[in-house]
Amino acid sequence: MELPHQKQRTFEPSAEAQAGANVAGMEAYRALAADAERDYAGFWGGLAREAIDWRKPFSKVLDESAAPFYTWFEDGELNASYNCLDRHVASGHGDRVAIVFEADDGTVTRVTYAQMLARVARFANALKRRGIKRGDRVVIYMPMSIEGIVAMQACARLGATHSVVFGGFSAKSLHERIVDVGAVALITADEQVRGGKTLPLKQIADEALAMGNCDVVRSVIVYRRTGGEVAWDTSRDAWMHEIVANESDICEPEWVGAEHPLFILYTSGSTGKPKGVQHSTGGYLLWAVQTMKWTFDWKREDVFWCTADIGWITGHTYIAYGPLALGATQVVFEGVPTYPDAGRFWKMIADHQVSLFYTAPTAIRSLTKAADADESVHPARYDLASLRIIGTVGEPINPEAWLWYRRHVGGERCPVVDTWWQTETGGHMIAPLPGATPTVPGSCTLPLPGIMAAVVDETGQSVPDGQGGILVVKRPWPSMVRTIWGDPERFKASYYPPELGGTLYLAGDGAVRDPETGYFTITGRIDDVLNVSGHRLGTMEIESALVAHELVAEAAVVGRPDATTGEAVVAFVTLKRARPEGEEAEQLAKTLRDWVGKEIGPIAKPKEIRFGDNLPKTRSGKIMRRLLRSLAKGDAIVQDTSTLENPEILDQLGRAV
Ligand code: 6R9
User: Which residues form the AMP-binding enzyme C-terminal domain (predicted)?
Assistant: First the structure.
């Protein structure tokens, strides 16, 4: 994976980046890592006591007796919302701005910590009045908004477990999650506004609830974003602004055990059914705080901006919890990077004096393209001098995009932190420390202190550095996934497979370690999961959606490298009738793309659909996906095809429609 010219492209942290950094210099990094090696429980226990205000202190750090169902700080008690709000107000920082919200149309709203606390308390009281209590699950299907964060925090305050569903998911996906998680309430908005376009969230929510098995959903609470027309069921629906109107702005937090599930977030796995990744309260919050301090070198004066959506893990850890737990000031953005033009991010950085900026490689690539085409949206046209550290997440970043980001956004001055982590890991795992780690484009560098990452083969044995293998984590860590909601067996099988010995956490990514530096480079997923614009999609999920269409007999979905989206979805489809050609094939491809959009969400729409009389199969009837991957890329088939039963099909499928 390593490019031959990568060696000389190492960027040392500048003297400025090192000076006063929370972790300054590699010696400091090594000392922390050595602390963790020496006394694992002592290391984590110390951090947890410092990062979190505990209502009741924990007496034990880590319990491995039910491995791989590890528990952390188990007898400690806390409340996440208390840690995110009350403690800052109590220590005299109530007037500090918590959120600078910029709406799609550019309208800016600021909320202080004291105001945020009052809003969360009022909403929590309103939820309580509707019977929502500790242990209940609440689905949140909302746009990027202060209200969305208030909703998450209010659930946390009551000890209710939230499950946020990304606003781009379809009614069917929303329904599936509501049922699986057993939600008693749904919090949504009338409409979402992005890039000048509206999306009728309430209408989609109504459709989802009408799909059956949702009887336990007693209340639907609606944030009025646009005032657009919505259908109303008075027995169930209520406006958010109406139900908080007469509530007190004092709400005693519900103290919960450290292992209490703060949230469940669905993500794609290698089977058709999304996994409900369950996170804890104590361990999760600890790592949200600690990685803000380490990876982003967060300081009180910083203005932090993470461009993710609260529907993804990045928006949970680095919008809804991490920054608030520190008492940080952060920017929250409703819209898209290309509206009203592709200079929006750069303008917002300048307008709000953002110092820590965190976005996805796919955004960087598309903004590079836009800047190349139109000089007026080039970052050079904006004053980005406030930036101190710039980060990326979500997918491997190609060295070209990394270098462009460092040069044009970071002004050759800001360290680039390429952060590898996952929904399941809760927070950053492998990432540079901006005041310590020399960076190399395309590498997420070294594991954070306390994270025991390694590269192994299919049997769990270490592979030599320089040789690719499977990325694993050798020891549990506080913010790790606790289980898959309702399916502990799947948790074990997915993350602690017996083939690897049952004690290594299997990330699902491939990686290679540099023999000289020990730096990790992530080579992408090793399972049937695609990464399109940083969004995780299961190939099986898309296949199931396709075969659910009345005309489709069989479908196989693979990823193809894409210059902008990282990977693109390519679907090979056979129909229950003759293979369509020409105009008809194009029409049908469009129908099926829209169908997938309806079934899962627009992010899952295949970029290309190819029709065949059959799919390439082995004699035992197994679809040979590796051949399809080559065909999708337009590569000649050089693999061994001796087990293929119907080689003639390759020619037919090799041609795009
Ligand atoms: C946080 C998040 C996780 C998958 C992960 C990997 C890919 C994320 C990456 C990266 C290379 C990085 N990924 N960050 N690959 N370099 N810096 O994205 O969570 O949505 O669960 O996706 O994304 O493949 O396994 P999630």
Answer: 541-622
DSSP state of 12: P
138 vs 317: CA distance, rounded Å = 18
- What is the average pLDDT value for the chain, to the nearest integer? 95
ipTM, 2 dp: 1.00
In this prediction the pTM is: 0.94
Strand partners, 109: 101
Distance (Å) from CA 618 to ligand 1 centroid: 32
The 8-class DSSP code of residue 135 comes to: T
Six token digits for residue 291: 């990685």
| Spacing, Cα 442 to ligand 1 middle (Å) | 13
Lowest mean pLDDT among 7-11, 189-193, 515-519: 7-11
Which candidate, 477, 461, 471, 460, places its Cα nearest to that of 513?
471
Tokens of 509: 């990514």
**Residue 420: closest CA among 542, 343, 519:** 519
Residues with Cβ within 8 Å of 124's Cβ and at least 6 positions away in sequence, in order, are: 81, 154, 155, 157, 158, 251
Predicted local distance difference test score (pLDDT) of residue 8: 54
Q: Is the peptide bond before 415 cis (omega within 30 degrees of 0)?
A: no
| Residue 422, pLDDT score | 97
Cis peptide before 340 (omega within 30 of 0): yes
Find how far residue 167's CA is from the centre of its chain.
Answer: 14
Q: All domains of the chain, ordered by start, with CATH?
A: 17-335+420-508 (3.40.50.12780), 533-654 (3.30.300.30)
Nearest CA to ligand 1 atom 8: 394
* Token pair listed for 396: 């491997």
Q: Whose CA is nearest to atom 10 of ligand 1?
A: 395
Give tens-digit pLDDT for 342-384: 999 999 999 999 999 999 999 999 999 999 999 999 999 999 9
Ligand 1 pocket, residues with Cβ under 6 angstroms: 267, 312-314, 393-396, 418-423, 444, 507-509, 522, 525, 531, 534, 536
E-strand stretches of 341-397: 356-359, 389-392
Residue of the nearest CA to atom 12 in ligand 1?
Answer: 420
Ligand 1 pocket test, candidate residues 481, 536, 537, most atoms within 8 A of CB: 536
Q: For 77-94, b where at least 16 C-beta lie within 10 A, e where not — what string?
A: bbbbbbbbbbbbbeeeeb
